[in-house]
Amino acid sequence: MQVMQMVSAFGPLTIAGIVSATLSSALASLVSAPRVFQAVCRDKIFPGIHIFAKGYGKAEEPRRAFALAFVLALACVCIGDLNAIAPLISNFFLMSYALVNYSCFDASLAKSPGWRPAFKYYSMWLSLIGALLCISVMFIINWWTALITIALVAVLFFYVHYRKPDINWGSSTQAHVYKNALQNTHKLVNVNEHVKNFRPQVLVLTGAPMCRQPLVDFSVSITKNVGLMVCGDVISVNPMDRLFDLRDISKKAYVWLSKRRTKAFYVAIMAQSLRAGVQSLLQSVGLGKLKPNTLLLGFKSDWHRSSPEEVSDYFGIIHDAFDLSFGVGILRLKSGLDLSHLQPNATDAYNGLKDVEISISSGHPNDEKNPDDDTHEDEDSEDEQNDESKQMSNNFMSKGVQNKGFIDVWWLFDDGGLTLLIPYILTTKKHWKGCKLRVYMAGSKQSALNRDHRHMATLLSKFRIEYSSMTVLPDFGKHPSEESLTEFNKLIADWMLKPSEEETEETHPWKISEEELLLQKDRTYRHIKTRELLLQHSKDAKLIVITLPMPRKGICSSGLYMAWIDTLTRDMPPILLLRGNQENVLTYYS
Fold first, then answer.
1. Phi and psi dihedrals of 70, rounded to 5?
2. Which residues of 149-171 are buried (b: 16+ CB within 10 A; e: fewer)?
3. Residue 332: enclosing H or E segment and its boundaries?
4. CA distance 383 to 377
5. Selection from 222, 191, 187, 216 nearest residue 204 by Cα
6. pLDDT of residue 75
7. Fewer CB within 10 Å, N side or C side of the chain?
8. Residue 400 is inside which H or E element, if any?
9. Which range in 218-222, 380-384, 551-555 is most confidently predicted, on average pLDDT?
């Protein structure tokens, strides 16, 4: 201090400055710091400090934090040698100044519109220089106390970063996430597509995601860390005379997805019909190259009891997806996919739409309708229902590694390779890792089985698809059993056209005429025979993936098509009907 007085123009001014700086630091530490500490305690960022969050009086004075600051200051004074702790305290102050300067620089770098500095001569680069100077002075004062300070700050930062407290600070980190996502999305637009970089990007017709847990979980097993997943929800409104704010519905869906750690997007749309809504989703969902290329929906197992309009819509959705060059997958479980009757509060967010006639679509007509939409207020009852919901979902997608078994792939037609790629992706995921692939293919003739087998084995080897066995079956062209034919005829009995009741193809286009049944006889027999082979070879499979029959609009009625896929999937293990859009997704080259 004597040296500073000697070199200064007026010595007493130096003493006055030191006293002023000491008083300001003391007041800041004893008054401002406890309030900041109280705010940190109220945010519950760190455990065990919430007792200091309590405030007293109208101004919410942090008396407990004041007492803590007093005790800490008194303890430092009682040491008797302030020079021993002065370097550490100075480093703490310098670190706080460095962080403030860097925060200003980072906020400017993120280019958030909400960051508007009022200082006329502010410069982001000056802030960065200030932060670097503070760090440099820390090491000049004492290098080991500087390292201790940096280590403590790093520990606190990583703790908060990995704990992810549910607090919205509006930080520059959030601005950076948006900025980086926007820049990378723009870059992706200019990247040329290549078959080696194909990724399944799935639009899943889940409706409210919490009502289709098995479908959501299965989709996640395909797309997790691989591709895009979007949960689509169509809210059918009749009449659709005005639009409604769907943000509450979206918020509830995202909360549910977040709790289950499901990396997926959710899109709700209002339309006059399910098919119109799905058409809008197929055409508009996505951004740039981040657009779905595969549609996944549940099987409509109540099709034979549904109205012709609903069945025609379901059939039309499949056809629309193929028209728009989407791959299509249809999942069917014995227990069904609809768990809405176990989620009584799943549709609470729709209550704001009560002033119009609405039909809350499940994304796809599926299984059984929800018989009870009443809200249950009893928490114990709700917990039991949630447990039952989880149990039903986990019967198919149970936690942990799946028991050793087989995923059977029935690759009956060349669809570009999607029917092979999806099962392979499943075997790389934790849930399906214990399962091996069994591949079944249609052969030409009995005499050419060995040649077909060698050809397909070579093909799979070039595709680098590992499998435990491969079987070429020549039996698809054989006549099915009379018992199977009788069962199929019973299935379509109510959907047959009845000329005696003055029904015509023009008035009842969804029904099956005798001419159509005769025209599609070979395809019908093939599907019935395929069912017999599935029961013979894949009854013990954990999952069956089979090529989806192609819908032929104008040639095949919706009733006959539904009968085909019902025949293929009824009373089977979990089964996925899948078909690509004829674009190659597999390549020989790595």
1. -65, -45
2. bbeeeeeeeeeeeeeeeeeeeee
3. strand 327-332
4. 11
5. 216
6. 85
7. C
8. none
9. 218-222
Q: How far apart are CA 399 and CA 370, in angstroms?
A: 26
The tokens describing 342, both together, are 């176990």
Query: Is the pLDDT at 31 greater than 80, yes or no?
Result: no
What distance in Å separates the CA atoms of residue 480 and residue 457, rounded to the nearest whole number? 28
The residue whose two tokens read 């519109």 is: 113
Check residue 340 and report its DSSP letter: G
As to burial, measured by CB atoms within 10 angstroms (0-12 exposed, 13-18 middle, 19+ buried), residue 125 is: exposed
Looking up tokens 């039903």 gives 392
Question: Which tens digits make up the pLDDT trace of 105-136?
Answer: 998 998 888 888 888 889 999 999 999 999 99
Give yes or no for residue 383 having a pLDDT over 60.
Answer: no
Cα distance between residue 339 and residue 351, in whole Å: 19
CB atoms within 10 A of CB 565: 23
Sign of the four-CA dihedral 494, 495, 499, 503:
positive
User: CA quadruple 498, 500, 503, 506: dihedral positive or negative?
Assistant: positive
Give ∠ CA 507-510-516 in degrees, rounded to 5: 100
**How many angstroms separate the CA atoms of 572 and 568, rounded?**
8
Helix, strand, coil share (%) of the chain residues, nearest 5? 55, 10, 35
- Residues present in the chain in total: 590
Pairing of strands 469-473, 265-271: unpaired
Q: Which residues pair with 353 in a beta bridge?
A: none
**CA–CA distance, 472 with 449 (Å, rounded to integer):** 7
| Cα 25-31-33 angle, rounded to 5 deg | 75
Write out the E strands in 333-428.
358-360, 405-411
**Residue 379: pLDDT band by 50, 70, 90 thresholds?**
very low
**Residues 6 or more apart in contact with residue 388 via CB below 8 angstroms:** 342
Contacts of residue 524, Cβ cutoff 8 Å, sequence gap at least 6: 488, 517, 560, 564
Give the C-alpha separation, 525 to 503, whole Å.
26
- What residues does 496 pair with on adjacent strands? 512
**C-beta atoms surrounding 305 within 10 Å:** 11
Helical packing angle, 172-189 and 82-110, nearest 10°: 40
Of the chain, the end-to-end C-alpha distance in Å amounts to 72
- The model's pLDDT over 421-478, given as tens digits with 9 standing for 90+, comes to 999 999 888 888 888 999 988 876 665 667 777 877 888 888 888 888 888 888 777 8
